Amino acid sequence: MSALVQRLTRFLRSPQGQQLVDRGRRELAKPETQRKLKQLASRLSSRR
């Protein structure tokens, strides 16, 4: 399992990984995305 974590860490530190992280941050900043995530969270919490 530690090998997988090491590979992920290396990828996230690479230029391609940094681009992916930046894209994710931009998407999470959008109000529509935040609304969708809140809806998903409420559906998942109501299942319990």
TrEMBL record:
Residues 22-35 have a biased composition (Basic and acidic residues). It comes from the Bacteria. Residues 16-48 are annotated as: Disordered. This is Uncharacterized protein. It comes from Micromonospora harpali.
